């Protein structure tokens, strides 16, 4: 239980505007001493977990079909963000723009996890320059 409380504390610090108590109110199944790993939990059906999910595709060989599918799924399920490698950023921006979805955030890894991008190059350009 201590590990879960520690992780919830870290999440609330990262989110900034969401307190630990807010997280436990929305996800009451986490605030119990009976939580046992490997056993099914009764998650309330009205809990909007999708607001906490970053839909991610970081494979270096992800083609345009896979990225388009990722975007469609994120839109369909109203996920919080889409996380991709830098080379797929323009495609995601285009997909979200076409769908008129400004509420879904975009997260981009710069050279992680495969080091596809030269570190010096990444320091010299901004994401705005890359999109244009």
Could you describe the 3D structure shown?
A three-stranded parallel β-sheet has the order 1-2-3, with helices on one face. The protein is 42% helix and 11% strand. It has two domains: 1-45, no CATH class; 49-131, Alpha-Beta Barrel (TIM Barrel). It starts with a helix and ends with a helix. Helix 3 (64-77) packs across helix 4. It has 132 residues and is α/β, with parallel strands linked by helices. It has six helices and three strands; from the N terminus they run H-H-E-H-E-H-E-H-H. It has helices at residues 2-15, 20-26, 64-77, 89-98, 119-124, 127-131; strands at residues 54-57, 81-85, 105-109. The radius of gyration is 18 Å and the shape is elongated. Helix 4 links the parallel strand 2 (81-85) and strand 3 (105-109).
What is the element layout, followed by pairings?
Layout: H1 2-15, H2 20-26, E1 54-57, H3 64-77, E2 81-85, H4 89-98, E3 105-109, H5 119-124, H6 127-131
Parallel strand pairs: 1-2, 2-3
């Amino acid at each position: 239980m201590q590990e879960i409380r520690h992780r919830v504390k870290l999440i609330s610090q990262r989110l900034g505007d969401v307190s630990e108590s807010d997280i436990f109110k929305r996800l009451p199944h986490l605030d119990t001493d009976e939580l046992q790993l490997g056993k099914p939990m009764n998650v309330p059906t009205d809990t909007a977990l999708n607001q906490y999910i970053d839909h991610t595709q970081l494979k270096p060989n992800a083609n345009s079909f896979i990225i388009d599918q990722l975007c469609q799924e994120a839109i369909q399920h109203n996920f919080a963000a889409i996380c991709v490698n830098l080379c797929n950023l323009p495609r995601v921006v285009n997909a979200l723009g076409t769908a008129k979805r400004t509420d879904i955030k975009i997260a981009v890894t710069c050279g992680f996890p495969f080091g596809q991008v030269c570190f010096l190059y990444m320091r010299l350009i901004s994401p705005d320059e890359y999109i244009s």
